[in-house]
Amino acid sequence: MEKNSITDAEFASKGYIISTDKQLLDFEVIYNFLNNESYWSKGIPPERLQRAIENSICFGIYKESKLCVFARVVTDMATFAYICDVFVLSNYRGEGLSKWLIQNIFEHPDLQGLRRWSLATADAHGLYEQYGFTVINKPERWMEIFTPYLTTTETLN
């Protein structure tokens, strides 16, 4: 895994903090982004998202106590982790925050020694490849059941 060239201290000097403290999360910001701006969670019921947050390790990056970056990690903390719901609010893009986020996820003490990491992305392959992600090896072995939250005839790509 490649290390981000910007250190925690450099981000702190710019007023950013990163935390897994769920008390700091701004649920309305998270829900608004995932429900209205993301391509992967449109139509998610708020109760479902709240339960997902409660049962995941969540990472938030904050500036002046305002959430600007979010990610969830679904894991058994022994063998597997799935990184999901990653977003950087538009006003904070281009500062290297997504790299700092992924670096901190990989360094989290409960996520050491895992056998498999996974994620799904439509547009951030370059970011994740820097940290060792590749297309799925032997995709013929992977299966899924996909039931989007949409209540209309709209479909996801």
Automatic annotation (TrEMBL):
Pfam families (alphabetical): Acetyltransf_1 (PF00583)
SUPFAM superfamilies from the UniProt entry: Acyl-CoA N-acyltransferases (Nat) (SSF55729)
Domain annotation N-acetyltransferase: ranges: 16-148
InterPro entries: Acetyltransferase_Butenolide (IPR053144), Acyl_CoA_acyltransferase (IPR016181), GNAT_dom (IPR000182)
CDD domains (alphabetical): NAT_SF
PANTHER family, per database record: FAMILY N-ACETYLTRANSFERASE, PUTATIVE (AFU_ORTHOLOGUE AFUA_6G03350)-RELATED (PTHR43233:SF1)
The protein's name in its UniProt record: GNAT superfamily N-acetyltransferase
Originating species: Mucilaginibacter terrae
Lineage of the species this protein comes from: Bacteria, Pseudomonadati, Bacteroidota, Sphingobacteriia, Sphingobacteriales
